[in-house]
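To close the chapter, one final illustration. This time we ask the reader to focus less on the individual chains and more on the assembly as a whole: which components sit near each other, and how the overall shape emerges from the parts.
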Amino acid sequence: MTDDNIIRWAIRIEFDGTEYVGWQRQNNGISVQELIEKAASQLIGGRPVSSITAGRTDAGVHAAGLVVHLDFPADVVLNKRQIRDGMGFYLKPHPVVILDAAPVSLDWSARFSAIWRSYRFTILNRPSRPALHTNRVWHVKRPLNAAAMHEGAQYLLGCHDFSSFRAAACQANSPLRTLDVLNVHRENEFIFIETKARSFLHHQVRNMVGSLALVGTGKWEPRKMKCVLNAKNRAAAGPTSPPEGLCFMDVGYLDDPFLAN
Amino acid sequence: MTDDNIIRWAIRIEFDGTEYVGWQRQNNGISVQELIEKAASQLIGGRPVSSITAGRTDAGVHAAGLVVHLDFPADVVLNKRQIRDGMGFYLKPHPVVILDAAPVSLDWSARFSAIWRSYRFTILNRPSRPALHTNRVWHVKRPLNAAAMHEGAQYLLGCHDFSSFRAAACQANSPLRTLDVLNVHRENEFIFIETKARSFLHHQVRNMVGSLALVGTGKWEPRKMKCVLNAKNRAAAGPTSPPEGLCFMDVGYLDDPFLAN
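The assembled structure is written out below.
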């Protein structure tokens, strides 16, 4: 489609990523992207719809407020409710829903217009496995010191080369990222790790959490996080934490299309 | 078993009630009680173990901290970790876990020694169905006024005849109950209803929530809750809310066996 033939809508979505291969289309299973594009296509009688996401989540990772834009053929007439409820209907019975929808201009991109992304990672820290929070938390039996984890996390704030926390498969041009928030706090048996940055490297959040868990058990002093960062070497950091504790929470735009809605 | 032949343990359990017929054994499906008693029995080589619960939850209702006592043959030697982790093992893959265990005397009962119970009911109040909270919330699309619901809820506090909120099948001798807490508050798209009382009638929480939802939509004024209560007639109240939003949170004892643990 050329630009003249497109109308673009931004949508905000929530999904349970447990059963999917992640956002991006792959040959080895169902992706959230194909579910979203298929539902959008069904809504307009089968004509193709393409999508761009603000964040390419991994398999098993969830989203509470991921923003995506959809390019529809320009001659279809749609409104917010049709997109939200109509796509929600075609997405059944998948645990993927449209929370909101807003028309945007063609120079607005869910990915490139984003000025920050935020994630939450949840650890269930107790001896017993989860029953009510299965697939939503990383279960860590050994007691974790959340205050020490928070202290260690603060060494990662600011603009750094995050090579130590970068997946080998990361496609970003640069390992430089500016981390704005990395807070760790405990609420009863749960430890929440909240983070915010303009953008993240592939596996960066899960790799930071894996290292912070080593601080939490006492294996590493909090200041060890600074050494790990300075090493600029993936081997210096802790293991990648499992995906199920991670949730894409929100994404910010200078022109938030949903606010004007 | 006679008293001489018994040792009694209190356990605190968490479960996802979605797939079960409720706490109590029934012919039409799997009950949490039979899963718990079976796991306890497997732990001691197949000898029978009986249980008494602090709360007989309905089908689809969850528990984050339900207390149960188990009567084991007196000659078995058990410790807290064996019960928690061993029963947790035999309970796999069911979403039922043992959070804690403590030995208690035979004059201590999970049911009769309890001095209060607390429940939380969660409503997801937005147009889109739940994706991340499927089976954990009552999905209400129509906007609800949580402040009005809270105001209406306060008319139910204190000692009253709760016949208007009592299931026909309720086996309690008296419809009199003393309601200590019934708080309603909103957090973004969620409305939480927290309640606490020495004990509740059958379906009392779900019936109170069903009526409060009518206050939330504006169909009823908050003070209508007082009229409904005074009617002492189930037909005067609103419908029973669905079970999936309800979670048994906690139970209190003068001698809390887990504190001394």
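Residues 3-112 of chain A form a domain with the Alpha-Beta Plaits fold (CATH 3.30.70.580). Chain A touches chain B at residues 14-16, 62, 64, 84-85, 88, 95-99, 126-132, 134, 136, 247 (CB under 8 Å). With these observations in hand, you are ready for the problems at the end of the chapter.
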